[in-house]
Amino acid sequence: MSEATKRRPGRWTVARRIVQAGALVLFAAPLVMAGWGLLGIGFGTDDALPTPADLPFFGSLSSTTILGAEVLDPFAMLETIAAAKTFEVEWLLAALPVLAVYGLVRGRAFCGWICPVNLLLEGVDALRRKFGIEVREAPVPRHAKLWIALCVLALSALTSVPVFESFSPISAMNKGILFGATAGVWTLLAIVLAELFWGRRVWCRALCPLGGFYEALGRAGQANVRIDHKACVRCDVCRRACLADPAILSPALDGDDVIVRAGDCMACGACVDACPTRALSLALGRTAKPKAKAHK
Known about the structure:
296 residues, mainly alpha, Alpha-Beta Plaits, 2 domains, three-stranded antiparallel beta sheet, two-stranded antiparallel ribbon, disordered N terminus, 4 iron, 4 sulfur cluster binding, transport, 4Fe-4S binding protein, transmembrane helix, metal ion binding
């Protein structure tokens, strides 16, 4: 058993679990408050029930209403534009708050801190370790999801249907819990099986088109993992803990950079919690890339 496995969850992992659970509760609360129930199951009353949409907050990760203002998932907006072959300014305005938040923080912070599929797969990852099931670390190149995202948009335009929304495992988790929707259930099952027997984090790292979209957005985020090169002992525990892809840590660990600059970083803090010498930290601010070292 590795050192990373033995360690108790650190403060960033605990904070992330609280945020992930809080997101699920936040979206479920309006349905419960209105008396609708979850999983598409009502409470069985014959009395007229209020509409959850009348509450200050209501919706899903695809589309949410906050104080009467609609907020859209930016990638779902792009799919809709491609499928409808039209553009509405209202769609862009609804997506801008999400773009601004994740653009300033880090694009893939959504994956690390909010996405329910990531929460599920962390549990599957722990289950696989418990039973000693060995899988490949990177069976698919991590940048594949960028091309998959482009293909999804192209197919949406060709079929006039928002393609990813029809099989999204995020919908299977989020909308399934809230409304009992079944879209994406088979995709979710396939992802769990792939996680157990094929490759570690293969969906999140390499195949998810939404992750590809946020990877592109995440190249300018302000939440960054920093390294203290003097404290680093090159134990590679952080690489084993990384949820995104160990390769994104290489420039910092090899001494070529002082932060993890890759857009794939989820700012999840898993590597920070795992580091035995506290050489890694998660902080705001994006420093300039150091000049290349001169070779003698």
